[in-house]
Design goal:
This is DUF7344 domain-containing protein. The protein is mainly alpha-helical. The protein folds into 2 domains: about 5-135 and about 195-210, no CATH class; about 140-195. The chain is built from 10 helices and 5 strands, in the order ααααβααββαβαααβ. Strand 2 and strand 3 form a beta hairpin. The longest helix is centred in the last third of the chain and has 22 residues, at about 170-195. The chain is elongated, with a radius of gyration of 22 Å. The N and C termini lie close together (about 10 Å).
Length: about 210
């Protein structure tokens, strides 16, 4: 399986969570279920927490922490649950039990019952669509690409508006068509090569899938 570097995952994460996500999370639920995009970014910046949410969205019910830890450990070690060693299981279980789940519960992402050793997603997260963009290390995230494209087109429009050099003869309409064409072509290519995968979709977490 192809894995992505932490920096590419974090960069892609910020540019790939849909704008509707923030509205959905901050508007969903009451009290502890109210979330902000900063909460989501912070929680999902950790691989183990991402894996946990991915699994919880897949099963969509309250689960035993040990079952959660086993699946997270299996993804981390790229092996079936049955092939895990006791040390691999224990390492992930302790990490989730003593730290990650409590932090996620405090932020309102999960309902963690430490006494019973069970955990479930809260409605705000269960009903939200969180996308991760799988980025090849040799590529740049689409968010950064569009930022650069916008800057280049802004420069192009500025030169045309000031009638600099050849732009004085070309006119505004051809420049506008070029700008529209660059965005249209880019959007088409992105659609064809879209590597975004939703947390909770069937299969392993997004960054473990081939780009």
């Amino acid at each position: 399986m192809a894995s992505q570097s932490p920096s590419s995952i974090l960069s892609a994460l910020r540019s790939s969570i849909r704008s509707a996500l923030g509205l959905s999370l901050s508007a969903g639920g009451e009290g502890g279920d109210r979330l902000t995009q900063d909460d989501v970014y912070d929680i999902l910046s950790n691989k183990r927490r991402r894996y946990a949410i991915h699994y919880l969205k897949q099963v969509d019910e309250r689960v035993d922490v040990r079952d959660l830890a086993e699946q997270v450990a299996a993804w981390e070690n790229d092996k079936p649950v049955e092939a895990l060693t006791s040390q691999e299981r224990k390492r992930v279980y302790i990490s989730l039990y003593q730290g990650h789940l409590s932090s996620m519960d405090d932020r309102g992402l999960v309902d963690y019952d430490e006494t019973r050793g069970t955990v479930a997603l809260r409605d705000a997260v269960r009903d939200a669509d969180v996308y991760l963009e799988v980025v090849d290390p040799r590529d740049i995230p689409w968010g950064q690409f569009y930022l650069g494209l916008s800057a280049a087109n802004a420069l192009l429009i500025g030169l045309a508006w000031l009638d600099v050099g050849l732009f004085a003869e070309v006119g505004d309409l051809p420049v506008a068509l070029v700008v529209l064409a660059t965005f249209a072509v880019s959007a088409t290519v992105q659609t064809l090569r879209d590597g975004r995968i939703r947390l909770g979709d069937e299969g392993p977490p997004p960054e473990l899938r081939s780009a």
